[in-house]
Each structure stands twice: as C-alpha cells, then as structure tokens.
Amino acid sequence: xxxxTSSTTSWFAAAALAAVMATSGGLVVAQSAPDSENGRYxxxxxxxxxxxxxxxxxxxxxxxxxxxxxxxxxxPDERIALDAEIGRLQAEVEKLKGQIAAGPTVSGxxxxxxxxxxxxxxxxxxxxxGDRKIEIPLPSDQDLDRVMSFxxxxxxxxxxxxxxxxxxxxxxx
Length: 173
Known about the structure:
By secondary structure, this protein is of the alpha+beta class. The protein has three helices and six strands, in the order H-E-E-E-E-H-E-E-H.
C-alpha cells in the first residue's frame, strides 16, 4: 500500500498537467500513434490493469503490471467454442436428416416370441357356455374379514369420538 503523500503527489501532478494543457491553448499536442501501429490497439482501463482490443483481429487481452513489467494475456474467446459446437450440431442434424431420408430400418429384432397376454392384466369375467351369462367371482373369506375389521375399527372410533364430544359439552355447561 502506498503512503498518503505519494497519492497526494500524484493527484497534484495530474492536476498540474491538466492545467498546463488547458492554459496552453493547444500548444501541447497529444502524441499520435506510431505509423506502424496505425491505431491498431484500443486500450480501456480496468481495475486489474488495462483491457487491450486488437482492432484488426478482434482479440481481447488483459494487460497488467507484474514484477518483471507489463504482460498481456489473451482473454479466452467463447465465440470460437460456440462456433465449434454449432458446426458439430449442424453436422449431426444433416446426418440425422440423411438417415430419415434413407427410410426406416428394422433393428433390435429378438428371436423370442412375445407373450400373447399381459400377465398384469386382470382376468375377464367368465361366461357360462350354455346360458351366455356373466359369472362374477365372489370375494373370499379373507377379503370379507378385512372389510369387517375395517368397519369395526371405524365404528369404534366414531363411538369414542362421540363420547368425548359429549363429555366436553357436558363439562362446559
């Protein structure tokens, strides 16, 4: 971190330079870019240093000062990666269009025969041969016991609930 006097000195120097340029009435002329460079680079200050744009190629670099001096590093260009991905996808689309145009292909044929019925499908009601009547299977004793057990539990809960409500009401009156 710099001492405060260094910062103050640099502010005074910048202010003095601005005053000289303003009072000289154009006597101080900005130095133009060298003819060989022809204004090739555009510089923009950023917190890390300077952002440099090459106006001929479009390459962007970040330049920063390190112990050995100034160094510029090219910023990764996402456009190149995007263009490569677009090209790959276009090639894949063309390949798939060619496959569709060639017609359907049969693949994945198996040697085993498929089952004639679905094992998960419920059985249809049986039809008596002579009378053409539908026979409905009756529930088993186990099914009836389960239903009766459920109804008994529900009835007991209902009675218990009614008794609690009655106690609560009689206690408040």
